[in-house]
Amino acid sequence: MSKKRTWLLPGLLACALLTSACARAYILEDLGMILGVGFDLADDGKLLQTVVMPSLSQGKGPSVIAITSKGDLVKEARENISMSSDRQVVSGQMRTAIFSEKLARHGIWSTLDTLLRDVNITKSLFLCISDGDTREILKRDYPTRPSSGRYLYELFKKEARNYTVPRTTIQKFDRDFHEIGTDPYVPYIRLQGELIAASGTALFRDDKFVGSISPEETKMMLLLRGTGEGGDIKQSLSERTESRIGQPAQMMLTFVRTKHDLQIDQKQGKPLLTYTVEVEGQVIEYTGLAPLSADTLPSISKQLEKGLESRMRDLIDHLQHKYKVDPLGIGTHLRATGRFGKWDRAKWRKLYEEAEIKVNFHMRIVRTGLTR
Amino acid sequence: MSEGRKPRRRRAQPSRSFQQSERVHFALHSLNTFQVAILITNTQFGVGIFNLPRVVVEAAGHDGWMSVLLAGVIVQVALILMVILLRRFEHLDLYGICRRIFGKWIGNALGLLFALYCVAVAAVVSRTYVEVVQSWLFPTTSTNVFYLLILIPCTYAATGGIRVLGRFGTAILLGTIWIAFLLIVPARDIQLNYYLPLFEAPLLDIAKGSWNVSASVVGFELLLLIYPFIQKKQKTLMAVSSGSWLTITLYLSTVLVAIGFYSTEQLITIMSPTLHMAQIVELPMIERVEHIEIATWSFMIVITVSTYLWAAGRYLHKLTKMKEATGVYCCVPLLLWIGLIPQDMYLLDQFEKLLGTIGSSVSLCFAPLLLVLSLVLRKKGAGSEGFDQPQDKEVNAS
């Protein structure tokens, strides 16, 4: 028996070799790996898709190929792209997907569907919204990176650490989109002359783009969401400087430590939320004349507190009443208390609209840098 | 196989009395306590965990993790009843117990049903795994060829007998346990709010969730067959319980991470949340870690399938006195045939559901039923009176 067993397993496993031809072969040289993809709305209502792929051609020539194509479906457009390329187009290396504002106003969920359904596309795909044509953005050459897709990916990764844009992958969008209590939000980019610049956050109501907020506001929004350590923020002070006439003194701070607390109460059936944000900051720039000392610091931090608090209140007011979106996830917080009964989308929108949201901002300057 | 024609070896030969030879047989093939625990864990782990977070959340919302705990408690109760039953019948396994309680004909028929069930589970587990491989790795490759390929190592391991399976299982658990660490990455992105409010789901929904979990925890019923091979029978309950609770712990952590990582409404839309969570992991050199996870998981599939296959083969071995390995080979055509029936995802899904229901009912109800019947009919273990036969006695018998 033991003799028989020795040839049995190798013999059977040899059969496995016969199937090696069944799998589809992917040869690196023949692949067109999509690094970034952009979606625009064509005039006739179809989807315009632009992809950038690295060009593996020998010798000189453009380092990337950008192809635009039109179709009703994303995969249909991709097929058209594939037809106009000598390479097999694959999406396993896709890093960023850009949607134009025009398209996003009509909703992006139907476009996202295939990106989520496709097993080859990573769930850490970065999403963003651009104010103009995504074709323009993707076709441009960037000095530091071989391709615009890669460039944007690195840009977002870096800026997310500075909290000027949110860190939102397709997974996060999917999560917030489905969650009854949070609206999704993604980075917003603009073409500024020759460069792409991250310029804040694009806000969504369900899957429809409704507006954007600036990088400064993004920092405050992320602070209210409980992150933001290491971000910088600028605040004007009441003191006037003499150097630039009429200009108020300004101070730039880095948040070295942030603490964040949310208290939820009910007032006549309406939710009453109180954010308490405690921040320890370090001065990195100060244009005032009064030296920063133990005497002046308390009043300065009072001013900072007041200024930031009112700016946060304005932001919340905008989110709540102008855009009517809930990127702060207040609905999720309310739902988690379990005090508001049966939860659904309509209830969330109603409660969010009538909620009273307060902000208590506490600021402490712990360091002033190397000078006073 | 031609082994049947060879002069039989002593341990398989019904020398003197049947009972004594059985006892010698058991003494030679013994599983230590650790291997028993591992074997239970291994057979429980199959393809169920891939979809587990979704199926519990579908039933019980964000309180779904309680369903997993509840399922663990139910399994524990079932295990206690099983051990009581097995102790009552001392050295007999399920097939022997059936014959003792119901007589030759009905007992054999019941045993046949159980053996068929084992083959069906083996078929569905391996076939579902092939489906996972296809949807994640090789969408265009032939399903049937893959299915054939996965059956080769399964059959090979099953012919080795329970002692080989016990050792193989230990190696496999050590080789696959690292997959649990992949949960760390999604766990860093957990939203605590998603767990709240606690106890929102009514108790009935949590129980329904447990029913959904039960398809993933079946496997412990094989204790009914491996019991005769256990070295230290006094420690059986401890061993199988720790094996089962290891499974529950791993299931629970997976479900907890999934609930915190995904929003409840999103989780329902995702086919295999466990694999999706692995997709989030990005190592510096390696992307698409889920591919490695799926490939590694094949070991888990092999041990599950081969243990079930061995269990089915045992039936033929007991019935016809053929060799265990021959019995396993005889089951393979059936296994192959069952697995080839479902050709698309939906049929397979229905198959899975049906078998999950059968499996949960069998593993939960069969042992208590037998226990009650044996009490009513006053049937008892093989000859001797005491619960535990001292180990040295068995060794002396050889």
Question: In a few lines, what is going on in this structure?
Answer:
The complex is a heterodimer of chains A (372) and B (398). Chain A folds into two domains: 28-213, no CATH class; 219-372, GMP Synthetase, Chain A, domain 3 (2-Layer Sandwich). Helix content of chain A is 33%, strand content 33%.
> Which structural class is indicated by helix and strand composition of chain B?
mainly alpha
Give the H and E element order of chain B. Answer: HHHHHHHHHHHHHHHHH
Mean pLDDT of chain A: 82
Helix and strand element order of chain A: HEEEEHEEHHEHHHEEEHEEEHHHE
Unreliable sequence segments of chain A: none
The total beta strand count of chain A reads: 14
Biggest interface and which pair forms it? A-B, 32 and 33 residues
How far the N terminus sits from the C terminus of chain A, by CA atoms, comes to 88 Å
Helix content of chain A: 25-40%
Shape of chain A: globular
Kindly report the oligomeric state of this protein. heterodimer
Name of the CATH class of chain B: Mainly Alpha
Uncertain runs of chain B are 1-21, 383-398
What is the count of distinct domains of chain A?
2
As a whole number of angstroms, the C-alpha radius of gyration of chain A is 26 Å
Q: Kindly estimate the percentage of residues of chain A that lie in beta strands according to DSSP.
A: 25-35%
Q: Would you kindly provide a written description of the structure presented here, covering whatever features stand out?
A:
The complex is a heterodimer of chains A (372) and B (398). Chain A has 372 residues and is an alpha/beta fold. Helices cover 33% and strands 33% of the residues of chain A. Chain A has helices at 2-18, 74-83, 101-104, 109-117, 134-139, 148-162, 170-178, 215-224, 297-322, 330-337, 345-354, and strands spanning 31-33, 36-41, 47-54, 64-71, 88-90, 96-100, 126-130, 185-192, 195-205, 208-213, 232-240, 248-267, 270-286, 356-367. The radius of gyration of chain A is 26 Å and the shape is globular. Chain A starts with a helix and ends in a 5-residue tail after the last strand. By secondary structure, chain B is mainly alpha-helical.
